[in-house]
């Protein structure tokens, strides 16, 4: 009797695991196993990092936009027309260089990629190991553990069991799956410094930025670590894939943001020297620089210190397609010097004096 009970329990447990596994496979909220079967393919969750895994694997494309929130509003359709490829936008918010490297390496396992439009974001941290510790790598290194962890989170459980009111599925435009350009809370902050002040209490980033500027307590950045991150997780990987063309943008954060960096002049000289050594070293890598453009000095083009308007995404894409604003050994010093000169004389920085009485 005891043996029968044990056998029954073991068999029930095994069948239960098989049933649960089959159920997870069929539902597959993050599209990790297959394309959507029970809902439209453009109905995705807001968990960008888990959703990116499935989108990168099962969507059809031969070129990819892979960046941070700075490229979320870049149209894959426009990129396909202007840069000659079938692009898909796999950018995700806050993507650090290591994360993008893992996503890219996973993509080329199953896709024959022709072109990559990427970003060399200003990541400043006091420890290069920050990248190693901030990303859940199991999804790419130990897939069983990664899949298990992904489907045990609260949102996955809600979506698995058809809890529509609690599952965070949303329909998106697959041209830009995680674009924020149409979200009112972001759109309303464009147009001028007045809008920052008007909505500063509703966004911690704006409040923090204004307080930092008021106190004049900007950061001192370690540009060496920025350079290490670019080299290790972007340029080295690009060099390993000489048949893939890389278009890399240094995202143009606002001049106001960079004006708060205490060691900006020395840091920019480091970055300039570094880029001078690499801009023509790799035949398949092109680096684009927009910091000497007028829009960088007009805060009306930014919803916060770093995020520019969607029109700037379109503008940069068009310039890249024409081969404009490409850094070369011949122009790099001039382009950097132009930005630093304009930054020093920019009247936009004095706008703070005008609005000083509005600060909390």
Short description:
With 360 residues, the protein is α/β, with parallel strands linked by helices. The protein folds into two domains: 1-59 and 151-170, no CATH class; 61-124 and 172-358, SGNH hydrolase (Rossmann fold), CATH 3.40.50.1110. The chain is 48% helix and 8% strand.
Structure description:
The strands form two sheets. A five-stranded parallel sheet has the order 3-2-4-6-7, with helices on both faces. Strands 1-5 form a two-stranded antiparallel sheet. The radius of gyration is 23 Å and the shape is globular. The protein is of the alpha/beta class and about 350 residues long. The chain contains 17 helices and seven strands. It has two domains: about 1-60 and about 150-170, no CATH class; about 60-125 and about 170-360, 3-Layer(aba) Sandwich (Rossmann fold). The chain has helices at about 1-25, 50-60, 75-85, 95-110, 130-135, 140, 145-150, 155-160, 185, 195-200, 205-215, 225-240, 255-260, 265-280, 310-320, 330-345, 350-355; strands at about 45, 65, 85-90, 115-120, 170, 245-250, 285-290.
